[in-house]
């Protein structure tokens, strides 16, 4: 028997070393005067099934690639070619190949890329040149004009090669062979799509004689004196100019000046220049000092509270190839939603994103391109981060991150990576980073003993534990006990949710040690798909995949905010507005800014309609300060519900939003909701086949409602089922709560209704039923009591649980069908959806929407769209008032159809609009990865009674 071994020409693919031939990493910058030539665009492309299928003759000058296909660089080949170039694969932590480090499968899609280019006419004849690859997944070998110039791994890191000696004016042949799998893949097991390709730019950079090589801007701020100290260390001597500060010093020398500091709230950047003999490089300098002091992360002398989000790079058509406009959109959306921090999960982003963070103001945790999560399947045996053979690769990754990104003031933390277990390699990385950049802190979540880190970081810790940590009662190593705490991931934004954010925020604000957190995650990684709308794991026939676990963002793939983002914006708003009895308390919750950049407005609503409005003078409160302010005398509102709404708006345009943009708001009740009352004056009358009562007719045998006035109604009846959410599905390995399975086992999705009695009294029609699932003894005794005053119809539903109920109910209410409904108007919470633990952003008012607009397009269809605290709703010719307030949903499909759908394209509008009027919902929670709903948001099976009043709209 003989084994075929890979020929040595391809050994680099499985070599644990980072590569060979590349230049040492250095700062990433765009020169003011050195020429650059973009090599992006159409490249010739040939895909092979294995790494060694083809020799390297394609790299030679004169090779005829006319018969090859084309791909766009930057781009992932599996997202081009309509499937002809292979397909994306999604796994969370499982390696999609045998765990056999450093070996990868023989079937190793390999893309040969060719590009022929001429130098521009004005390309200088002197000096050198480098070719820079900003991102290639996962391993590449490069030839220029037939010369092999090296190979590299480290997909989301820049690699440069000196090529000046190889260039010629015309007909340069750049050949790049990219392998999908390599030893590097073992270090890149992030929870995302596996997407090979040259996915970031390729650029040829002229390197003038005497040009800048590498430089490190050190710009600190002394909050006691207001002085900034600047020193730019440079490999090549030169001068540093900052005109606004009258600075003109030599590189390597420190200079101090009075400055405005940089913070995420006020991102003051000073434009400067580094001038060497051969080159001028623009600098954007932000003065700030990051320290660990008194067990807290302090910037410029103040402890900061991170209101963050984890951001993967994602575009539904382009994958991890993002253009500047898309990056800017992300930053603007974050700023407009009160987010002040971003963790670049789980790799350094495109450098332009960091420029935007500097410019608009976001605290950044820059994370290294490192995750070995799949080794957890074998108890972390052979984990590369604890195997010295891999340490050079880890150090190379750390250095490539730090050196590339070190001049960004927005970066306050370097993160070693994500979910890589523990080991010597990580310690080596941390030591190197601490030595190279002592002016920033080091983060890593995977080591709860905090051996290498400056912060105790966790993911998905439940509220109770977070509180213990806040109280410093969590124990741990001595080192850890002295550290501040952040949740580098929490609030898993998969599908409907995350619930419980406000409860976390309360803790973060209560305990100093808790310095906030980062929601998982920013965007759903849905892939645009011709039949499915957005595809997720499994849609490309992957043999192993993790389904829609890749769709867990605060924004949908097209970057429309999901309700989770709207909720988060409210929960983290930097101004608290609360109060009662006509007095509003305004509290400044910024870390640095006073309130002078905001204007305040009040409005007064009667039955949800604004009747008066005005401005509110709020002093320029300093961070942490509050003021109690008297609102004007409230206008009369006899017999109606009234409330104040106070808003904090931007007083003038900012870089990220216009004047008038709402930053925060609060509502103060001026009276209680007015409950509908209907005198039970009418008597039910039994006809031949129908029973009539007031405007309504009922089936004579079953007592089922058939019509109200001229409006046909599919009779309301008790409903406890909701199309289970991703959070209801839960995960066994995380919280262990899987309501969906519990509920389905109990049979709550297939309740049967047994009619007990139909009773006609003096003043009421009463229908008695028992609602219960097959095979179980538990049930709900349900009594529907109908009364009328001749024109309005009141239904009171009384529910009495029977038997031993151990599980909460998904929902409790009634479902009815209307044959025609489109426009919906309501008075209550809106404009978006709200559930018991996701309802901070729900504002009481008058709202309208079409039935279609009421749907939230979660990529995997599930319960959505409930409007909460509704006093009344009008749709399909009916007005429905609640006693007490209720939630409603309205859809063109049934809950069962919603439950069965796997993609939005499965949902087809039927003839009936199905309306749920809910007395209660079980909380949403975050147990798709995290805690379930807190007990106060559970919908227990308990006796309940609730009413609705129906009338026909004229
Ligand atoms: C974390 C991980 C993330 C993501 C998340 C669940 O464990 O760091 O990358 O997988 O869970 O969506």
From TrEMBL:
Residues 692-951 form the Beta galactosidase small chain/ domain. It is an enzyme of class 3 (hydrolase). It comes from the Bacteria. Its EC number is 3.2.1.23. One of its GO terms (molecular function) is beta-galactosidase activity. The keyword Chloroplast does not apply. Signal peptide: none annotated. GO terms for biological process: lactose catabolic process. GO terms for cellular component: beta-galactosidase complex. Belongs to the glycosyl hydrolase 2 family. This is Beta-galactosidase. It comes from Streptomyces sviceus (strain ATCC 29083 / DSM 924 / JCM 4929 / NBRC 13980 / NCIMB 11184 / NRRL 5439 / UC 5370).
């Amino acid at each position: 028997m003989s084994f075929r071994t890979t020929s040595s020409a391809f050994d680099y693919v499985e070599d644990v070393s980072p590569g060979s031939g590349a230049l040492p990493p250095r700062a990433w910058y765009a020169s003011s005067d050195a020429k650059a030539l973009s090599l992006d665009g159409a490249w010739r492309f040939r895909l092979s099934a294995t790494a060694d299928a083809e020799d390297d003759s394609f790299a030679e000058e004169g090779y005829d690639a006319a018969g090859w296909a084309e791909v766009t660089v930057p781009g992932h080949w599996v997202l081009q070619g309509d499937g002809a170039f292979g397909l994306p694969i999604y796994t969370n932590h499982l390696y999609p190949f045998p765990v056999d480090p450093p070996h990868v499968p023989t079937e190793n899609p390999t893309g040969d890329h060719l590009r022929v280019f001429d130098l521009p006419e004005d390309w200088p004849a002197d000096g050198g040149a480098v070719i820079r690859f900003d991102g290639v997944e996962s391993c590449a070998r490069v030839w220029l004009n037939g010369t092999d110039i090296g190979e590299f791994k480290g997909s989301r890191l820049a690699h440069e090669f000196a090529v000046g000696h190889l260039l010629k004016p015309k007909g340069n042949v750049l050949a790049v062979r990219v392998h999908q799998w390599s030893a590097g893949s073992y270090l890149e097991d992030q929870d995302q799509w596996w997407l090979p390709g040259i996915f970031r730019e390729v650029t040829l950079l002229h390197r003038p004689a005497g040009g800048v090589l590498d430089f490190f801007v050190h710009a600190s701020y002394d909050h006691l004196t207001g002085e900034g100290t600047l020193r730019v260390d440079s490999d090549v001597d030169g001068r540093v100019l900052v005109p606004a500060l009258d600075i003109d010093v030599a590189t390597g020398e420190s200079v101090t000046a009075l400055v405005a500091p940089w913070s995420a709230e006020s991102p003051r950047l000073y434009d400067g220049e580094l001038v060497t003999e051969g080159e001028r490089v623009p600098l954007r300098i932000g003065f700030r000092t990051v320290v660990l002091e008194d067990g807290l992360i302090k910037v410029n002398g103040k402890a900061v509270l991170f209101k963050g989000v984890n951001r993967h790079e994602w575009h539904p058509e382009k994958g991890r190839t993002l253009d500047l406009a898309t990056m800017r959109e992300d930053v603007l959306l974050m700023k407009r939603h009160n987010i002040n921090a971003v963790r670049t999960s789980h790799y350094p982003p495109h450098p332009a994103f960091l420029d935007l963070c500097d410019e608009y103001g976001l605290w950044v945790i820059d994370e290294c391109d490192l995750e070995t999560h799949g080794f957890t399947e074998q108890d972390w045996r052979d984990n590369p981060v604890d195997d010295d053979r891999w340490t050079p690769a880890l150090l190379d990754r750390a250095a490539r991150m730090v050196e590339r990104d070190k001049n960004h003031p927005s970066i306050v933390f370097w993160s070693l990576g994500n979910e890589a277990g523990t080991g010597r390699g990580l310690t080596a990385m941390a030591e190197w980073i601490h030595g190279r950049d002592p002016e920033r802190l080091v983060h890593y979540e995977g080591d709860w003993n905090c051996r290498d880190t400056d912060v105790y970081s966790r993911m998905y810790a439940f509220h109770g534990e977070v509180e213990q940590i806040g109280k410093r009662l969590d124990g741990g190593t001595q080192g850890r006990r002295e550290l501040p705490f952040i949740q580098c991931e929490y609030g898993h934004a998969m599908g409907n949710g995350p619930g419980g954010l406000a409860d976390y925020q309360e803790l973060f604000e209560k305990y100093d040690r808790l310095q906030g957190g980062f929601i998982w995650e920013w965007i759903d990684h849905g892939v645009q798909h011709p039949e499915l709308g957005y595809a997720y794991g499994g849609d490309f026939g992957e043999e192993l995949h993790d389904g829609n676990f890749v769709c867990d963002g605060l924004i949908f793939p097209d970057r429309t905010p999901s309700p989770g983002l709207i909720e988060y914006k409210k929960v983290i708003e930097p101004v608290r507005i609360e109060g009662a009895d006509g007095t509003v308390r305004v509290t400044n919750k910024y870390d640095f800014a006073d309130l002078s950049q905001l204007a305040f407005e009040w409005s007064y609503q009667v039955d949800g309609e604004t009747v008066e409005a005005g401005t509110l003078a709020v002093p320029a409160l300093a961070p942490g300060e509050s003021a109690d302010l008297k609102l004007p005398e409230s206008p009369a509102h006899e017999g109606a519900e009234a409330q104040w709404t106070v808003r904090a708006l931007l007083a003038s345009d900012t870089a990220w939003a216009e004047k008038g943009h709402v930053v925060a708001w609060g509502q103060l009740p001026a009276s209680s909701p007015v409950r509908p009352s209907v005198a039970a004056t009418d008597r039910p009358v039994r006809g031949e086949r129908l029973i009539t009562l007031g405007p309504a007719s009922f089936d004579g045998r079953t007592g089922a409602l058939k019509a109200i006035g001229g409006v046909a109604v599919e009779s309301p009846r008790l409903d406890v089922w909701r199309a289970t959410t991703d959070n209801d599905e839960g995960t066994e390995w995380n919280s262990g709560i899987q309501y969906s399975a519990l509920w389905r086992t109990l049979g709550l999705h297939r309740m049967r209704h047994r009619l007990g009695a139909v009773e006609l009294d003096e003043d009421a029609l009463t229908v008695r039923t028992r609602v219960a699932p097959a095979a179980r003894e538990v049930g709900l005794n349900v009594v529907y009591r109908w009364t009328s005053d001749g024109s309005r119809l009141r239904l009171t539903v009384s529910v009495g649980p029977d038997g031993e109920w151990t599980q909460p109910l998904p929902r409790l209410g009634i479902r009815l069908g209307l044959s025609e409904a489109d426009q919906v108007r309501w008075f209550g919470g809106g404009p978006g959806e709200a559930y018991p633990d996701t309802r901070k952003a729900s504002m009481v008012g008058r709202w309208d929407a079409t039935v279609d607009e009421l749907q939230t397009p979660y990529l995997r269809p599930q319960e959505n769209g409930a409007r909460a605290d509704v006093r009344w709703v009008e749709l399909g010719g009916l007005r429905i008032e609640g006693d007490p307030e209720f939630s409603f949903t309205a859809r063109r499909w049934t809950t069962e159809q919603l439950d069965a759908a796997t993609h939005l394209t499965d949902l087809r509008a039927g003839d009936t609009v199905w309306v749920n009027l809910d007395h209660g919902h079980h909380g949403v929670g975050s147990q798709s990865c995290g805690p379930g709903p807190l007990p106060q948001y559970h919908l227990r099976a308990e006796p309940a009674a609730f009413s609705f009043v129906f009338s026909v709209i004229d």
